[in-house]
Write a structure and sequence with these properties.
The chain is of the alpha/beta class and 228 residues long. The protein is 29% helix and 21% strand. The relative contact order is 0.27.
């Protein structure tokens, strides 16, 4: 049986059970618990109400542009027509290509974490959806990854655009920054993220949309939060 590390056992002593704490208190504890050598991700997890009064379950998939960025480093690929390759490179894309990039994708070479595509190239990438989709790499206009404005699309992802979607049980999670972020920046990102999710509540869902909220870090423990 695998034993928890000494570091983790020390963190467990700081757990708070069956009690909600305010956001800033939770952020302070989460940051203090981030004792690994790398800059841990600070994450928020929400339990949302999926049940609609008119039947069926609601599914949420959208993007949130955090005001202070996410701190996550993405390797961005841009699939575009040859005339736009130079624009994509100037925008800061890490991988740029046209037919050559499609060939790499068809060969299963995914040396990127985000894929942006121009509308005219979507028809050519569509047949690879079964491979790109499960990896979360299929471009989508609603998620800002299908665009004619490549400079904006690349910049949005580099500066804090995060994608969120719920699972079948109504859980959704996202990073809101890194341990190196100040409490103030994390607090601002947290509030912006939660407010953005609340705005997605359909009229057909009655009562509270967000049923529970938790904060944690990559290698830490979670805290249930309530109030600001």
């Amino acid at each position: 049986m695998k034993k928890n590390s000494k570091r983790y056992r020390e963190i467990l002593k700081k757990s708070i059970k069956d009690k909600k704490i305010n956001v800033k208190e939770a952020l302070d504890l989460v940051k203090k618990n981030s004792t690994t050598k790398f800059d841990e991700s600070i994450d928020v997890s929400l339990k949302i109400n999926l049940k609609q009064s008119k039947g069926g379950d609601f599914s949420l998939r959208t993007i949130v542009n955090l005001p202070n960025g996410s701190g996550k480093k993405n390797k961005i690929a841009v699939l575009c027509e040859p005339a736009k390759i130079e624009e994509a490179k100037k925008a800061g894309a890490d991988v740029v290509g046209s037919e050559d990039l499609i060939e790499k994708i068809s060969a299963g070479k995914f040396n990127f974490t985000k894929l942006i595509c121009t509308p005219s190239m979507m028809g050519k990438i569509g047949k690879h959806g079964k491979v790109l989709g499960p990896k979360g790499l299929m471009p989508n206009p609603k998620l800002g990854t299908v665009s004619t404005d490549l400079t904006k699309a690349v910049n949005d992802i580099k500066t804090g655009l995060v994608e969120i979607r719920n699972d079948k049980d109504g859980n959704l999670a996202s990073t809101i920054g890194r341990r190196s972020f100040s409490i103030e920046k994390l607090f601002e990102n947290f509030n912006f993220f939660v407010d953005s999710v609340k705005k997605e509540k359909p009229d057909t869902i009655k009562g509270e949309f967000i049923k529970a909220t938790f904060l944690t870090s990559t290698m830490g423990i979670s805290y249930k939060v309530g109030g600001k």
